[in-house]
Write the structure tokens for this entry.
Amino acid sequence: MPRDLVLPFSGSTALVTGAASGIGAATVATLVTQGITEFVLVDIDEARLTEMADSLATQNIEVLVAAFDITDEAAWAGLTEDISKRFGGIDYAVANAGISGAERIADTTLDGFHKVMGVNVDGAFLTVQSAMSLMRKHERPGSIVVVASTAAISPLSLMLSYAVSKSAALQLAQVAAKDGAADGIRVNAILPGGVETPIWQSLPAFVARAAKTSEAEAFEYFAARTGGPTGAFAKPESIAEQISFLLSDTATNIIGAALVSDGGFSL
């Protein structure tokens, strides 16, 4: 008899970075439907986080809002202390926050390179380190998903900083998987391809295309060129469901995996 594919997370606590939009917001919404009752939501967009917390409160979901730059080590130290006092620890974590970059090597400045690496690598490291610390301190097994990118294994020439940073994020997840396994902490990575999220709206090429036509047409244009054989981008909700699978007990034997979800782009 096939195993029930409903993935309950009854009564547990999850930390999600980049929670205010895109894949992060979709992951929060998905985990709510699957039983998470306590959230730690991290993002730099405090106004949006507050809106989300107010909305979740109407569903009897308790939320700790943490609005800060994920590269701030001191802020993470303060947050882990707040989590310990409020929830006693966490059961799940999604290191999702990230920024993009679109430039060739010749056009890349060191400052720009450091900015992308800072958020996508330093921020992911501090997220994973904090999550593992909380799980170990309170002797709670846990599950962590690092959101990398298909650019980690199939980069485009215009995405130097982004591709390098996501390659590092993938290695972070796999090293952490080996580190945490003995303590019952599973770590995996997901490698999305193109996804319809606001991160595209920050890219100059997308902005230029959307200005000439529309955002919907711009998504279609870039999806046709970078969406793989399907010629389409994924919806954030689809990636969120895959993240919830990796977090869940259904994936108990999956450790250090890199789940590629790019519509065949990297084939």
